[in-house]
Design brief:
Residues 1-22 form the signal peptide. By secondary structure, this protein is α/β, with parallel strands linked by helices. The chain has helices at residues 2-22, 46-56, 69-75, 122-128, 141-149, 160-168, 179-189, 213-227; strands spanning 25-30, 61-66, 83-87, 96-98, 103-112, 131-134, 154-157, 174-177, 194-210.
């Protein structure tokens, strides 16, 4: 009888441990950056879904709260959150630590279709034209250096939708952002007078983990899951 009770107790404890693991939840902040992430998108976007499927392998649930990008980064400092995602590595703040790439995006140059645009370098692009950007993004140094050099030729929009509308109306003839985002929004809005003229680079999409002991453990788990792909 004693053996049966011990076996039952062991099974009960084991079951509770498995149940506890299966119910772990990571809560992150994010932004509406379609098609990568978005509150109204199926599965909350391609990049969110990719992360969710990775974590599901360990029985971890993913909860995502969407905010404007600057606010998303600020709120993620609270211990309620694991961090924020998807971020370019340049956007990982000093109190956060970057994961390996979970997904990939692009940075490219788009133009107002009727306009004629010619340039040999990013520096020349900013020298010759007013360039639209999203002012809450921290761009790679190739672009941010030119923005600092030619501040009067930088037109900052608060978000991608505003950038799209400025470009489509010819407020500026060129813009730099992720072409996938802009073309997705253009199709959604019925806008057909913008085009991608050059993809400059692929950019990693990482989780910015709040830098503490528990999150460093989570980071190691995520690395393991990514290495198994």
């Amino acid at each position: 009888m004693l053996i049966k009770k011990c076996v039952f107790a062991f099974v009960l404890v084991l079951g509770m441990a498995v149940h506890s693991s299966a119910e772990e939840t990571w809560t992150i902040t994010s932004l509406n950056w379609e098609p990568y992430s978005g509150a109204e998108l199926t599965n909350q976007g391609n990049s969110i879904q990719r992360l969710r499927e990775l974590l599901r392998k360990e029985g971890i649930r993913l909860n995502v709260e969407f905010y404007p990008w600057t606010r998303a980064q600020a709120k993620a400092k609270s211990n309620k959150y694991v961090g924020y995602y998807p971020a370019w590595p340049e956007e990982v703040g000093t109190s956060f630590v970057a994961s390996p790439p979970v997904d990939w995006s692009e940075v490219g140059i788009l133009k107002h279709s009727p306009a004629s645009v010619s340039f040999e370098s990013i520096d020349e692009l900013f020298q010759k034209y007013t360039v639209g950007v999203v002012k809450t993004y921290k761009y790679p140094s190739l672009i941010s250096d030119a923005m600092e050099k030619y501040p009067d030729h930088v037109d900052g929009a608060p978000n991608e939708m505003s950038l799209l509308k400025k470009l489509s109306k010819g407020r500026h003839v060129v813009a730099i952002t992720d072409p996938n985002v802009m073309m997705y929004l253009a199709e959604k809005e019925g806008i057909n007078n913008i085009e991608t003229i050059k993809v400059l680079m692929e950019k990693e999409l990482v989780i910015a983990f709040r830098n503490d002991k528990e999150n460093r453990k989570r980071l190691e788990l995520l690395k393991k899951l990514l290495n198994e792909l």
